[in-house]
Design a protein that fits this description.
2 domains, five-stranded mixed sheet, globular
Length: about 500
C-alpha cells in the first residue's frame, strides 16, 4: 500500500495526516505551536521552531502509523495564509514570521480610501495581516530588517523550502494581495496604492500552480522527519482553498459553509466577478475557479461565550461538550421550539467583515424578559448562527441548491437542521472532517498520476447525513430573519 502525507499548518496547531491512495484517512498527529502576542497587536511565530515542530510532527506520525518511509510516495502542505515570512541571502529567517491576524500595520492605513481601492482589485476587504500592508509597515518601522530580506514567503512556502530547498509561491495566495485576483499575479496597482516601489517585486518568489511539483525531500530534511530522500513535495495552497477542495468545491455555484471558531460561507465561481457589496474575501482557487467568501468572524465562539456566562453554576461546567449535548437533547424534546429572543452573533473584537463591514460591530441579545433563562439564550444563540449564515447567502440561494456543511457545527444534532430550515434547502454533512489535508491529498494524487483534478474531486464520495427543511420551522425562522436583519441594520450607526 502507498500513502500520502498532508501537512496542515494552522496558526497555533500543526497537524499531519496520512491518507492511502484511495483517500482513506489512516492516521493523524498534531502539535501546538506557541504564538507570540502582545497588547499592541503583535502576532508572530518563531520560524525555525515552527519548522522543527513540523518535522517532529511528521516523524511521530510515521512512527505512530507503523508505515515504512518508502511507502510514502507524496507530500503536500497547506497553511495559514498571507502574513510575512522573510528569509535573508543565507536562507535564514530575518525575523519572526508576522501572522495574518497581526494588526500593527493599521498604522499605515492613514487614507481610508485605500480600503475601496484595494477591494476593486482583490475582491477582499483590506486586512492588516496581509503581506503588502506589513511590507509598508516594515518600510516605516523596520527599515534595517527590510534591507536584509531576499524573499518574502508564506507559511506553507517556508515549510516546503525547509523540506526541499526550493522557493516558490502559488497563485492562490498571491491573489489575496499583493495580487490581482483576475490575473493571479502581483499587482502593480496595489503597490502604487501603498506608495511602494515595484523594486520589491523581486522579493516575491516564482508563482506556480498548486498541484505542480515543488521539489524533493532533501537529505537534511529526511534526517529530521524520517521521510525518504527524494520524496516528491507538491507546491500546495492556502488553508481556505485546501479546505474547499477537500469539501468538493470545484464546481461553479457550489455552496459550502465551514462553521467552527469562525464561520466561512463560500460560493465557488467560474469567473472573477467581484461582489458589489464591498464585504468578505475573494480567493483564486484551482481549475480556473474563484471563491466568494462571506465570513462571520465569530462562529462557535458565541456558544462558548453563552456557556461561560450562563452555565457557570452547572455541575458539568468544566465539560462544555456535556453541556452542549444536554442542551441539544432538551431542545429535541420540543417538536417546534421557538422563542422571541434575537441573538446577533458577533462576539469578537474585530467586528464584522461580511455580509456587512463594520469593524465596531458587537454581539447583541434583543428582547430579554423576566422568564428567559439560559436555555432560551442558548437557543437564540444557535438560531443567531443559522441566521448569520442566511445573512451571508442572502439573495444567492435557490430552492434547488444544496449547502455542504463542515466544521464543528456539522457534528451538532440541531444546528444543521436550523441552517436547512432558515435557507429552505438541503444541508449535506461532509463525512471526512480533515478537509484541508484531504484537499492536499487530492493535489498530490493529481500531480503523481496526472489525473484531472475536477474529475478526481467529483468522483470522491464525502457525504454523510442529509437534512431537509421543516416547513413550519422554515416559516418561523425566515420571519425571524427579517427582524434579525432590521435589528443589525438599525445598530450599524450606533456601534
Amino acid at each position: 500500500m502507498k500513502y500520502y502525507i498532508a501537512i496542515d499548518a494552522g496558526t497555533s496547531v500543526i497537524k499531519t495526516v496520512i491518507f492511502n491512495t484511495n483517500f482513506k484517512h489512516i492516521n493523524s498527529y498534531s502539535v501546538k505551536n506557541p504564538v507570540i502576542t502582545d497588547k499592541f497587536g503583535k502576532s508572530e511565530i518563531e520560524m525555525e521552531k515552527f519548522w522543527s515542530l513540523t518535522a517532529k510532527c511528521i516523524k511521530i506520525l510515521i512512527k505512530k502509523s507503523k508505515i515504512q518511509s518508502q511507502s510514502i510516495v507524496g507530500l503536500g502542505i497547506t497553511g495559514n495564509m498571507v502574513g510575512f515570512w522573510s528569509i535573508n541571502n543565507k536562507n535564514k529567517p530575518v525575523r519572526n514570521a508576522i501572522l495574518w491576524n497581526d494588526t500593527r500595520s493599521q498604522k499605515v492605513f492613514t487614507n481610508k480610501k485605500i480600503f475601496d481601492q484595494i477591494y476593486k482589485i482583490t475582491g477582499s476587504i483590506a486586512q492588516y495581516g496581509c503581506t503588502i500592508p506589513i511590507l509598508k509597515w516594515m518600510t516605516k518601522f523596520e527599515k534595517e530588517n527590510l534591507k536584509k530580506i531576499k524573499y518574502i514567503l508564506t507559511c506553507k512556502d517556508w515549510l516546503r523550502f525547509k523540506l526541499t530547498g526550493n522557493i516558490n509561491n502559488d497563485e492562490t495566495e498571491v491573489s489575496v494581495y499583493p495580487g490581482d485576483i483576475r490575473n493571479r499575479k502581483l499587482s502593480k496597482k496595489i503597490f502604487k496604492i501603498f506608495n511602494l516601489s515595484t523594486k520589491y517585486f523581486k522579493l516575491f518568489p516564482e508563482i506556480k500552480k498548486s498541484n505542480e511539483l515543488g521539489g524533493y525531500v532533501t537529505k537534511s530534511a529526511s534526517k529530521l522527519t524520517n521521510l525518504k530522500i527524494g520524496t516528491p513535495v507538491i507546491i500546495g495552497c492556502g488553508d481556505v482553498i485546501a479546505s474547499i477542495l477537500g469539501a468538493g468545491g470545484i464546481n461553479h455555484n457550489k455552496k459550502i459553509s465551514i462553521v467552527g471558531t469562525t464561520c466561512h460561507n463560500i460560493i465557488v465561481k467560474n469567473n472573477s466577478k467581484i461582489s458589489k457589496d464591498g464585504s468578505g474575501l475573494f480567493f483564486a482557487s484551482l481549475n480556473n475557479t474563484w471563491l466568494e467568501t462571506k465570513i462571520n468572524v465569530a462562529g462557535t465562539t458565541n456558544i462558548d461565550w453563552v456557556i461561560d456566562n450562563f452555565y457557570k453554576n452547572s455541575k458539568k461546567y468544566s465539560d462544555k461538550i456535556k453541556i452542549i449535548n444536554n442542551f441539544e437533547k432538551k431542545y429535541l424534546t420540543f417538536k417546534y421550539p421557538q422563542n422571541s429572543l434575537i441573538f446577533l452573533p458577533y462576539i469578537n473584537y474585530g467586528g464584522s467583515i461580511s455580509p456587512f463591514v463594520n469593524l465596531n460591530s458587537k454581539a447583541e441579545i434583543f428582547g430579554i424578559l423576566p422568564h428567559h433563562n439560559n436555555f432560551d439564550i442558548m437557543t437564540a444563540c444557535y438560531e443567531g448562527l443559522a441566521l448569520s449564515i442566511k445573512d451571508c447567502y442572502a439573495n444567492k440561494i435557490k430552492i434547488k441548491d444544496s449547502l455542504y456543511l463542515a466544521g464543528g457545527a456539522s457534528k451538532s444534532k440541531i444546528l444543521p437542521q436550523l441552517i436547512s430550515n432558515v435557507l429552505n434547502i438541503k444541508v449535506k454533512i461532509l463525512s471526512n472532517s480533515e478537509l484541508g489535508a484531504l484537499g492536499i491529498a487530492f493535489l498530490i494524487d493529481s500531480y503523481l498520476h496526472k489525473k484531472d483534478l475536477k474529475k478526481l474531486i467529483n468522483d470522491y464520495q464525502n457525504i454523510g447525513h442529509i437534512y431537509t427543511p421543516q416547513r413550519k420551522q422554515s416559516k418561523y425562522l425566515n420571519n425571524k430573519y427579517q427582524k434579525y436583519k432590521k435589528l443589525r441594520e438599525s445598530l450599524n450607526n450606533i456601534w
